[in-house]
Amino acid sequence: AVGDRDGVGPATRDAFARLGVSHLLAVSGLHVGLVAGLFYGLARWGLVRFGDRGWDWRSPGALASVVAASAYALLAGLSTSVQRALVFAWLGLAALALGRRPSGLDLLAGAAVLIGLFAPAAFFALGTQLSFAASGALLMARPEVREPGSAGQSPGARILGAGRGLVHLSAVALLATAPWLAVHGLPFGASGLVANLVA
Asked: How much is the pTM?
């Protein structure tokens, strides 16, 4: 939850790397997004439930979300992937509070610019390269793959669609990160696709 890997030995880390699931040991955008989304939802619920006087809850919700995500990012150690996710969340929530809906790629580009301004050397680190490559590739995946199924489908069809979507997204992330792993002489392979789905 906070990225503390002191109890994970080198052999275990190597095994995770060989399987292509090292990202499971790291705090990432998923974690920051969950915290941001949780507090945004709680703020919205609280304002609507206890204080709805016709106020626009988006700005207070965005503020609660930004504060919570920032506190969590500091607690988790502010790795580059966490910084990317945090800046992504800041920009997205600011846009939401202003009534705008930028694309995910716009937010990712904004995160790259801000990180590049303050820590340009970060882009020479493998973690940063993998983080941006995977995020960009997932954001460029077809919308029907990112959000499979529809309300009119049977439960079986929705489950099958979700399974296909997971396979597709895992393959997209694997293909996007493989060149960076190869440049750094690290293993990658199709086994990562299966391992990620199981994990």
From this structure: 0.75
Q: What is the mean pLDDT of residues 112-141?
A: 89
Structure tokens at 40: 């945004």
The candidate with the shortest Cα–Cα distance to 130, out of 191, 179, 190, is: 179
Structure tokens at 77: 């150690």
Give the percent of the chain with pLDDT over 70.
Answer: 88
3-state secondary structure of 94: helix
Quote the tokens at residue 72: 């969590």
> Which residues, at least 6 apart from 88, have a Cβ–Cβ distance to it below 8 Å?
29, 107, 108, 110, 111
DSSP code, position 142? -
Cα–Cα distance measured from residue 3 to residue 19, given in angstroms and rounded to the nearest whole number? 19
Closest by Cα among 114, 105, 172, 100 to 136: 105
* DSSP per residue, 57-80: -HHHHHHHHHHHHHHHHHHHT--H
Residue 19 has pLDDT above 80, yes or no: no
Closest CA to 141 of 103, 115, 85: 103
The CA-atom distances, in angstroms, between 24 and each of 17, 85, 146, 156 are 10, 16, 20, 28
More confident call, 179 vs 16: 179
